[in-house]
Design goal:
Its EC number is 2.6.1.19, 2.6.1.22. By secondary structure, this protein is an alpha/beta fold. The chain has 13 helices and 15 strands.
Length: 451
């Protein structure tokens, strides 16, 4: 089938990409992974063009970094303007206004009517590390509670906080102390015979038991939760669970941290995913789509908690760089001007409708789930046993690549297909991308039947 936007004219990798791959193999360690075996030449909106002239529809968005689209004109214009003025002075040396303006806007936009302050850093992992530092400083406690299947980064502390052993933790120990993993709500894998309401109470009771058997709440500085798990498989918890955990934190003086690094900036149909659960976090970590591709992250939190650290205890050389701040300000303008929250909601409805139709057709689909435009399919070998089917996902991703669609796998067992298309994607591009997923599934299942 021919496509209007996706156009793969060569094998993958193409001639130029092959040359670059050889250079990559010589000079870049294999520990730095890559998905599709080609190299980008240019990018615009939701379309990527590689060095061999192949065009792809992007359903990965640099792992959720490009909600505002590739090379968004507003962002490009802001960066050009900033480069002409100054590139970097180090906020710790000579301050600059974009940092203050961005902090002010995010403080006003974040959930809750309390006073807030904002700290800027470089990466999502740094944001999580600093949220933990701030919580420990404020509470004078050491313990950090995270959740099964969670992902928070690749540094020593955030790697410890992350659940998946391979590839993130294997042979990289010893790990950071005082990190504890609690059970997370997972509706699809709710025990058989248990109602949704019973499961809510069961998993909350498990959390309370965890605070008796694994770590005393008096020793816990922070509970760090992804409102929707990203790398863990786009697992959407119940409102009862999230509210219950937040209330337990409040009862015990534990700082509740919402990790919004992948879920933030309109991905779920609201500016922040935690808003869907009617919970006001004490701290929030943000990054990825905040900067439309520029490295910037942040911690947004209650002023009394953020103020706990003394001068010099937070920050970093490039933390909250002028370019990152200007990009983020342009993104906030775009969210408001183009109503990306609404776009996220509409895209999610269209994707879920198509995914549900696919689930009616293919019995290897165990679950379809999502929140806004953060949608996924979980593949299984058998709907009764729910045994994960990692192999089929790898085949589908590969078949999609060959047809000109970039997409990603996820989940503890690698059996989840997730989509993170830019929210500026056109209706035609979205439909074509979903058509390719459908064709890739057909090809993958046909190949499975042959073997």
């Amino acid at each position: 089938m021919s496509y209007k936007f996706a156009n793969v004219k060569t094998e993958l990798p193409g001639p130029k990409a092959k040359e670059l791959l050889e250079r990559r193999k010589q000079y870049v360690p294999k520990g730095v992974s890559n998905g599709i075996p080609t190299f980008v030449e240019k990018a615009q909106g939701a379309i990527l063009t590689d060095v061999d002239g192949n065009t792809f529809i992007d359903f990965a968005g640099a792992i959720g970094t490009i909600n505002a689209g590739h090379c968004a004109p507003e962002v490009v214009e802001a960066l050009h303007d900033q480069v002409d003025k100054y590139i970097h002075t180090g906020f710790n040396v000579m301050m600059y206004e974009p940092y203050i303006e961005l902090a002010e806007r995010l403080a006003k936009l974040a959930p809750g009517d309390h006073e807030k302050q904002v700290l800027f850093l470089n990466s999502g992992a740094e944001a999580v590390e600093n949220a933990v530092k701030i919580a420990r400083k404020y509470t004078k406690r050491q313990g950090v509670v995270v959740f099964s299947r969670g992902f928070h980064g690749r540094t020593l502390l955030t790697m410890t906080m992350t659940s998946k052993v391979k590839p993130y933790k294997f042979e990289f120990g010893p790990f950071a102390p005082e990190v504890y993993k609690a059970p997370y709500h997972y509706e699809y894998r709710r025990p058989e015979g248990m109602s949704a309401e019973q499961y809510d109470q069961y998993i909350l009771n498990e959390f309370k038991t965890f605070l008796q058997g694994d770590v005393a709440p008096e020793n816990v500085a922070a509970v760090v939760m992804e409102p929707v798990q990203g790398e863990g498989g786009f697992v959407v918890p119940s409102k009862t669970f999230v509210q219950g955990v937040a209330e337990i934190c409040k009862q015990h003086g534990i700082v509740f941290v919402a990790d919004e690094i992948q879920t933030g900036f309109s991905r779920t149909g609201k500016l922040f995913a935690i808003e869907h659960f009617d919970v006001v976090p004490d701290l929030m970590t943000v990054s990825k789509s905040m900067g439309a591709g520029l490295p910037i992250s942040g911690v947004i939190g209650r002023k009394e908690i953020m103020e706990a650290a003394n001068p010099g205890e937070l920050g970093g050389t490039y933390a909250g760089s002028p370019l990152g701040c200007r990009a983020a300000l342009a993104v906030l303008d775009m969210i408001e001007k183009h109503d990306l929250n609404e776009k996220g909601r509409i895209i999610g409805e269209k994707v879920m409708d198509r995914f549900n139709r696919l689930a009616d057709k293919y019995d290897i689909i165990g679950d379809v789930r999502g929140l806004g435009a953060m949608c996924a399919i979980e593949f299984v070998k058998d709907r009764q046993t729910k045994e994960p089917n990692k192999e089929i996902v790898g085949t589908i991703v590969n078949e999609a690549n060959k047809r000109g669609l970039i997409t990603l796998s996820a989940g503890l067992f690698g059996n989840v297909l997730r989509v993170l298309m830019p929210l500026v994607i056109t209706d035609e591009q979205l439909e074509e991308g979903l058509d390719i997923i459908e064709e890739a599934m057909e090809a993958a299942t046909s190949a499975l039947q042959v073997h």
